[in-house]
Amino acid sequence: MSGAWFDYTVNGFVIGNIYALLAVGLALIYGVANLVNFAHGSVYVVGAYTGWAAITYLDTPLPVTLLCVIAVSALVGVGIERIGLRPLHGSSRIAPLLATIGIALVLDQVLQLLFTPDPRAVPMQVPEWRVAIGGGTIGALDLLIAGIGMISAVVLYSFLRFTKLGWAVRATAQDSDAAQQMGVDVNRVNMAVFAIASALSGVSGVLVGMYYNQISTAMSFEATLKGIVALIIGGLGNVPGAIAGSLILGLTESYGIALFGTSYRNLFAFVLLIAMLVWRPNGLFAARRSLPPEPMTGTFIARSRPVAVPRWAVAAMIAVAALLPLLDQPYLLQIGANSLMYAMLALSLTLVAGTVGQVSLGHAALLAIGGYASGLLAMDAGWPVALAIPAAGLVTAALGTLLVFPAFRLTGHYVSIATLGIGEIVALVILNWTGLTRGAIGLGGIPPLEVFGIDLGSVEGTYWLCLAVLVLLALLQLRLLRSHLGRTWRAIRDDPVAARSYGVSGDRYKALAFGFGGFAAGISGAITAHAYSYINHETFGASISILALTMVILGGLGNVLGAVLGATLLIALPEAFRFLAEYRILIYGIVLLLLIRFRPQGLMGTV
User: Model confidence over 34-48: pLDDT tens digits?
Assistant: First the structure.
């Protein structure tokens, strides 16, 4: 083995050890709470900045730095369980998952406000010597990370195997109801598990900072995804499997970088994730069997009677919206156009998540496909914009459905994880397929909006076009929901087993839902591309998927008018309060948490 490959192997094992600290925490939480904790990466960042602050301001030695990280991260974990999740006991089983997304948004924004988005260098606290071995080298930090990983595994094994609280954790993981009947304090167990998992995540964050000599407030999302990928490889709730899955992921990434370059690093991880979900959803270290029983249905429908809005009132609102350009307020119209474009995305997601019960966390990828499809058709193929936009909607419907199709047989957490991974794969393909998408440069000079020679590039023209398209898409969706197809979708959402027993093909109808939803999202992405004339792989990021989910929960899942209302409130209101602009993500996270806790049916009720 050459020296370079030895170094890549060492790097793979080191990164795998860091991922293991993340994945083991996720496995513990899933084992006792049946929950994939999307706030885990945020705690990882809390640990990284705690370590940086301890070294920078207190000049702590390494052991004290690690103790500070463990203490602060554990306290944050306890707070997440006690304040954010325990009040949701007895709610729909996907409510805690959505709550962790809201908690992640809040933590990330608080950290950004405290430390700014600028990266920080973490001072090295170990000697920088390296020893030559077999043509490669291994350093003190490599050995430290490997040692911490092994010590953590031994301590965790001893805790679970030989302590009373560890026995309670194992009993709760096997059957929480039976454990509670035998006198186990399940709340205490959950709190202890969140503390342990968060401490491991925090240590992982500070070690990454030392290894790469840099931390930033933007690294939480990627950390969460890497932990989840390692967890899926090993098997949900399987602690030894999480360790093995982390090492496999670390080596796969390291060797992938050696062969293809750094820009492909994350692509390998997410392709591996989708492959595991499709062919081995239980993980590599579980017996071959069907998917384990899911503790939730895969949707977030809180039973309620939707708010009845008379048709004349809806027509009046459309008329008022159409007359808005007469006020001659360009800034107001720009906000309105943005709200309308987001409303198209919300329509798409409320159909998929609310009506069919497939909670998608990667829906922004459909915007990206639509934007790039329309931009490329207009720029490279010379199509008129009026034809490129609907064609982009059809391309998005077909390609989006094809990408998500392997996930149709999955349920619950698996659907959310799969769509999240697919969304990241789309962004990375756009980044790396330079021959088609121009890579990191993006698409510039996209032709402005026009319909058969009529210039709609002005603010007024963009607004009227968005309003007309939104009304047409909303009417189409209402017609679908009131048809036999809509009733079939709701049957699949409410009880997929019963639907199958009546001969309903779940995959076919889910594909139709994603097709219609993808068409609406693709149209929105296409209009966005032409309205702003430039897009790149970061234009439609994962935060837009979370924002869209917040919109549809705010309005009421499955509710067409609610989706439009949710988009209008979350896009227009923050613009009305410009002094709150830097707190926007924080507001979104708090809104999501409050909705899940106090108004899960949304403002307009679920359908």
Answer: 888 889 999 999 999
